[in-house]
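Extended Data, panel c. Modelled sequence:
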Amino acid sequence: MNYKQLTEVERCQIQSSLKAGYTKQKIAEELGRHPSTIGRELNRNTELRGYRPQQAQRLARERQQHHKNIQNTELTWMNVETLLKREWSPEQISGLLSRAGLQSVSPEWIYHYILLDKKDGGYLYSYLRCQKKRKKRYCSPNSRGQLKNRVSIGKPRPLLTSVNM
């Protein structure tokens, strides 16, 4: 599935459809987009004066530029690898980088980086303090949450004829 940004023309169509009283669902159908895309667009870019496509386009461009500027650099990952080799945890590394005013990386991204390295035949995973093995599941996913020896409610049950008291 390929994702593509909304264009300025589509944003103008959204504005005119809103003025015509169309629902988000109907606008999404007309543009060939998912309704949640239209909903997110309106939530992000509707202000006191309503939805304005030119302003929405400018804000989208600014968000895109900001995202490109904060991507992690090679130097950041070199720092992460150095600290991993000193047996620092990803949480400690993340905290140190942010306190030092360097490009910080979340612990989740560090774990992701280590996992990708391991898949490529790397060894960074060996520096993690906790070397847990993957838990083996002893039942199939289809049997989880099922009661053993269960009886369907459609099946008649035998009536109790005598009760010992």
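Helices lie at 8-19, 24-31, 35-45, 53-69, 74-85, 90-99, 107-119. This feature is highlighted in the accompanying rendering.
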